[in-house]
Amino acid sequence: MPEFVLKYGQTVQRLTVPAESLVGVVAPRPVPAPAPGEVLVQEALARPVGGPPLAERVRPGQKVVILASDITRPTPTATLLPPLLAELQRAGVARRDVTVVFGLGIHRRHTPAEQARLLGPAAGAVAALDSDPAQAVMLGRTSRGTPVAVFRPVAEADVRICTGTVEYHYFAGYSGGVKAILPGVCTRATIEHNHALMVDPQAVAGEIDQNPVRQDLEEVQRFAPADYLVNVVLNDQRQIVRAVAGDPHLAFRQAAAWVDELNGCPLEGLADVVIASAGGSPKDLNLYQAQKALDNARLAVRPGGVIILVAECPEGFGEPTFEEWMRSAGRPEDLITRLRQRFVLGGHKAAAIALTLQRAAVFLVSALPAALVRQCFFEPYATVQQALAAALERVGPGASVLVMPQAGSTLPRPARPT
Q: Edge-to-edge strand order for the sheet containing 127-130?
């Protein structure tokens, strides 16, 4: 029987699937890293997209902010920073004038050890801050009415450099780009207004130019514009396989095209059972993050089928509002009704889970207490093998099984309407 090793927190879950049931594997194309990550970033900095090199865009004496991903993202910031800092140094920018700002959005603050791990060799050599909504400055409103309130050190910087990883995002189209600023270093009110646009049918993974969420957040360029971009695309081993630098608009779109090439996966048809690993840590630190894998898996399962979500979730729910919504609902439909009555950030994730539950049952393989899992309208299992046995028994003879080892990063593209 075909065997799989699925990432689960810092460890793995092992799985065998009956050969007669397995209809496919949705996974990133196996692309080896063409060179060490730092070399790829150096090459991108040397050949920027859409304009001159960074050294020609900055001047000595300017205050430079480098926007970086928080601990819940897979971005290899420790690899990106050394060549970027070296480029700034060549331009005459003093190290004391450079600050790394971690965009927390509405996520928790980092511990000192987590900050140091993210900074890598740059730890202690450059100032670093977590974004703080209590220190935001209001800069204006987008054309869709989103109040743009940005962390003051970012708003007041002379130069803003966005870094990050580009991968599919379930309603912003893709991660990366100026998303490092909005929502990355904005207030809850800013993020909530922007994310409320996710109810639009065009707010889906893989869409940019017709996506209202992406279009709205890119209007941050009118208020606290990104001056430069360094984004990367990772393979299934979380190695950098593509790096791009330069104009924030053009460079981001080039990286998004690479993501489509590597991680867009056409489907022949929908499966009765979809086994979806969030991808291990940090993508399954909590249920709030693991939901993205569930949303991608929803695109591959037939109505009435079963999704098996493999996500350790050692930090539990991961966001207080999300937790309150999930704990207080009497049934999944209550979450959808509540969001339609009033969009609330955090609640939007709960409603997204409810939409998935309207399509398929969800079996959760996690470290969460079984009673809590049931409170979320999931069925709890300790191992993915146990969950598969239960799913095959529920679906019945002839069940088709699809495996998504990196469900948080891969986008199934069904060949027929879902």
A: 127-130, 98-103, 64-69, 159-165, 228-234, 240-246
* DSSP code of residue 109: P
**CA dist 176 → 85, 167, 184, 250, 336 (Å):** 20, 7, 10, 12, 28
Cα angle for residues 239, 40, 43 (degrees, 5° grid): 170
Q: How far apart are the first and last CA of the chain?
A: 29
| 116 secondary structure, DSSP code | H
* C-alpha span between 99 and 119 (Å, rounded): 11
Reading the block at residue 222, the tokens are 């009118």
The number of helix segments (H) and strand segments (E) in the chain equals 13, 20
Q: Tell me the CB-side half-sphere exposure of residue 411, using CA atoms within 13 A.
A: 19
Euclidean distance between CA atoms 52 and 62, whole angstroms: 18
For residues 344 and 335, give the distance between their C-alpha atoms in angstroms, rounded to a whole number. 11
Tokens matching residue 165 = 């990883």
As given in the structure block, the two tokens for residue 215 are 């279009």
The confidence band for 22, taking pLDDT boundaries of 50, 70 and 90, is very high
Give the other-Cβ count within 10 Å of 82's Cβ. Answer: 16
* Count of C-beta atoms within a 10 Å radius of residue 392: 19
pLDDT (tens digit, 9 = 90+) per residue, 178-188?
999 999 999 99
Q: Whose structure tokens read 């709960």?
A: 350
Domains of the chain from N-terminus onward = 3-27+265-414 (3.90.226.30), 37-234 (3.40.50.11440)
- Distance in angstroms (rounded) separating the CA atoms of residues 190 and 14: 42
Q: In degrees rounded to 5, what are phi and psi of residue 340?
A: -65, -30
Tell me what pLDDT residue 415 has: 61
Report the distance separating Cα 342 and Cα 201, nearest Å.
18
Q: What span, in angstroms and rounded, lies between the C-alpha atoms of 267 and 265?
A: 6
At residue 46, the 3 state secondary structure works out as: helix
Question: Could you give the angle at which helices 332-341 and 347-359 cross, rounded to 10 degrees?
Answer: 130
Mean pLDDT, the chain, rounded, equals: 95
- Report residue 324 as tokens: 């309150």
- Say how many CA atoms lie within 13 Å of 14 toward its Cβ: 2
The token duo for 82 is 């050394």
**Can you say whether the dihedral through the CA atoms of 79, 82, 85, 91 is positive or negative?**
negative
Indicate the SS3 state at residue 367.
coil
Q: Is the pLDDT of residue 66 over 50?
A: yes
